[in-house]
Task: inverse folding
């Protein structure tokens, strides 16, 4: 996975068996080994994904409370079960608890107490709702919006701390577009029948939410129409996902006077005062056209429509902590209608997720202590070092990179920092007040606590131990500006990593992910940031053209694949991740070859299960991407996701690698042997 500033980026049987036998879930007992379910009716050279994943897919249908189910979902579900055990232990008021354990336990208990949630209703929201209802002028908007942002309501836009693109050692403020709830901006604007149906359903959803607040049907209809009109206008001004990666053109430091000139119909000074930030420092405004359009919309929109929009944003942001009527209606549209999810997740799952969002590092500390050993961290660190060495060799040998670019690439590689397991220090939650039995109040206080925590970073030096997610997260990422890869404790489990497994499986699995993240530092986007994380193009024009010429082979390849129904994969939208998949697995394979060099077991000598090390390497990669998805989610992801479907993350990569052909003895004209192989790394 790759994002700015971070790019990202298990076996359920083991979890059940471990709970029954008292062994830590997901950690096989001594002598156990990762067992791949293979469909022996399929020739791996015909369809490697089917060979590796058919059995898993058949045995793992999508749960009714999910819209997809894959190996990442398995691992996440296992982690949620472990976190549930921690939270249930601390949720008893009679248990001896320290202050942090009390906060975690009482937040979870407040969520699980459905009677208290229903009794409280929308009471804690009434002050904000009344403030909206008594607005007599648009001049009241800016201070009110500041209050909403403090409570996690991202109406219109949001402000956040970011590393300065031009000086990665400091944190600056950044304002970015927000304020739309529909998952796909195109659906606000497209004229086809499917988009029109979705908009009609969305409008009905908005109307129902207003009715739940107590508005009449007639009032709700008018409010829904007004709120949707404002969201549609904002969506029109939002850049498409591919445009957002061109940071050299989107970087724009803006002073308060300049911001006033950019969006004169919004009182920025009043807004900054409301959020408790002086606003004296310049801000990064990466999408100026959006704020120009926002200003125009604020000038043209009626006051009733603005009120409706703000009320809707509050309900949408807080639906999961409101009474069941709000939660169910929110689920019915955003999950059931849009994604095809059949059932609302169990209460305990939702409460684990809510507690995790409020007290992530507190729970992360407990998780990491129970699940990860220093030996795990050392072994994964060793794999990282081996793959970095392979990348260095690759940099020295790639034909498209000139001498000066090669020299700077080497400098950047030497500066990459690996963060594995957990941060160097834990978060302090002492000032966060959690009251037993007050879910909505706890949610609001936690959101404000987090908002202030983020705001306090602005103007300070960058903290190298500031992680993008809690330690139990099942993910991996690369940070352009910190020039680092992050592998949290949550991903140090099967099928990504098996502490009892051999090098081949582990390098094919987590090794492929490590290689994937490392290549992001040297791709079309990574080339915009140097070894220090500063925004600086360190490639020559010739090298960039040669790189893009090679990546267009990948774009064409993946554009020939079907995502769902008759919809094809967008080879340009998914290009960066496809290139990283291909390059990352090649690097992991190179690291494996060096490890196996000189070993008597060799790469071709079979194990008792009949697989060779080379075969287990590719099976390790394939098993990461076994998945089932609803058609609705598949259609949405085809239009918006930067990653290809799992089938093509497997078949697309191995068909480009002659090493796969050799490992499985594929004939030259087999489907898994591309005649026009693509290679960047």
Result:
């Amino acid at each position: 996975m790759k994002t700015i500033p971070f790019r990202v980026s298990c076996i359920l049987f083991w979890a059940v068996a471990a709970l029954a036998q008292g062994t830590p879930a997901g950690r096989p007992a001594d002598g156990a080994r990762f067992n791949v379910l293979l469909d022996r009716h399929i020739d791996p050279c015909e369809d490697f994904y089917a060979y590796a994943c058919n059995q898993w897919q058949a045995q793992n249908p999508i749960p009714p409370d999910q819209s997809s189910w894959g190996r990442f979902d398995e691992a996440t579900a296992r982690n949620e079960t472990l976190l549930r055990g921690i939270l249930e232990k601390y949720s008893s008021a009679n248990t001896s608890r320290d202050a942090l354990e009390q906060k975690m336990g009482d937040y979870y208990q407040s969520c699980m107490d459905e009677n208290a949630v229903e009794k409280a209703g929308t009471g804690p929201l009434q002050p904000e709702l009344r403030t909206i209802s008594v607005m007599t002028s648009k001049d009241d908007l800016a201070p009110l919006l500041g209050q909403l942002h403090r409570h996690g309501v991202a109406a219109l836009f949001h402000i956040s701390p970011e590393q300065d693109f031009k000086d990665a050692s400091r944190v600056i403020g950044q304002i970015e577009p927000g304020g739309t709830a529909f998952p796909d901006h195109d659906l606000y604007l497209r004229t086809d029948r499917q988009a029109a149906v979705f908009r009609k359903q969305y409008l009905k959803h908005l109307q129902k939410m207003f009715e739940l607040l107590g508005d009449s049907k007639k009032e709700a209809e008018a409010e829904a129409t007004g709120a949707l009109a404002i969201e549609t206008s904002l969506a029109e001004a939002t850049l498409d996902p591919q445009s957002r990666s061109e940071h050299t053109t989107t970087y724009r430091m803006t002073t308060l006077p300049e911001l006033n000139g950019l969006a004169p119909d919004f009182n920025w000074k009043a807004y900054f005062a409301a959020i408790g930030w002086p606003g004296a420092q310049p801000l990064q405004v990466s999408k100026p056209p959006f704020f120009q359009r926002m200003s125009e919309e604020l000038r043209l929109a009626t006051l009733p429509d603005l009120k409706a929009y703000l009320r809707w944003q509050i309900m949408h942001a807080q639906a999961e902590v409101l009474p069941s009527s709000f939660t169910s209606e929110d689920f019915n549209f955003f999950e059931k209608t849009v994604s095809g999810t059949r059932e609302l997740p169990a209460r305990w799952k939702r409460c684990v997720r809510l507690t995790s969002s409020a007290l992530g590092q507190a729970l992360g500390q407990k998780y990491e202590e129970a699940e990860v050993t220093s030996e795990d961290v050392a072994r994964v660190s060793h794999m990282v070092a081996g793959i970095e060495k392979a990348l260095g060799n690759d940099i020295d040998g790639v034909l498209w990179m000139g001498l000066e670019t090669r020299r700077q690439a080497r400098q950047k590689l030497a500066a990459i920092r690996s963060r594995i397991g957990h941060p160097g220090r834990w978060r302090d939650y002492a000032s966060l007040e959690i009251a037993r039995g007050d879910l909505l109040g706890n949610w609001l206080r936690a959101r404000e606590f987090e908002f202030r925590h983020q705001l306090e970073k602005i103007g300070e030096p960058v903290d190298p131990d500031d992680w993008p997610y809690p330690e139990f997260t099942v993910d991996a990422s690369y940070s352009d500006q910190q020039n680092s890869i992050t592998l949290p404790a949550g991903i140090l489990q099967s099928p990504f990593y098996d502490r009892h497994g051999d090098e081949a499986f582990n390098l094919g699995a987590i090794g492929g992910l490590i290689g994937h993240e490392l290549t992001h530092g040297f791709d079309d986007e990574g080339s915009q940031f140097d070894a220090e994380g500063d925004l600086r193009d360190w490639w020559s024009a010739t090298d960039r053209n040669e790189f893009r010429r090679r990546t267009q082979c990948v774009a064409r390849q993946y554009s020939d694949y079907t995502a769902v129904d008759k919809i094809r994969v967008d080879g340009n939208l998914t290009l960066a991740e496809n290139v990283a998949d291909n390059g990352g697995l090649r690097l992991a394979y190179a690291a494996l070859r060096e490890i196996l060099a000189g070993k008597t077991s060799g790469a071709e000598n079979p194990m008792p299960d009949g697989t060779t090390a080379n075969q287990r390497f590719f099976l390790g990669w394939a098993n990461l991407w076994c998945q089932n998805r609803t058609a609705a989610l598949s259609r949405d992801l085809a239009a918006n996701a930067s990653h290809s479907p799992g089938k093509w993350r497997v078949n697309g990569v191995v068909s480009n690698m002659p090493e796969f052909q050799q490992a499985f003895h594929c004939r030259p004209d087999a489907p898994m042997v591309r005649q026009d192989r693509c290679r960047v790394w």
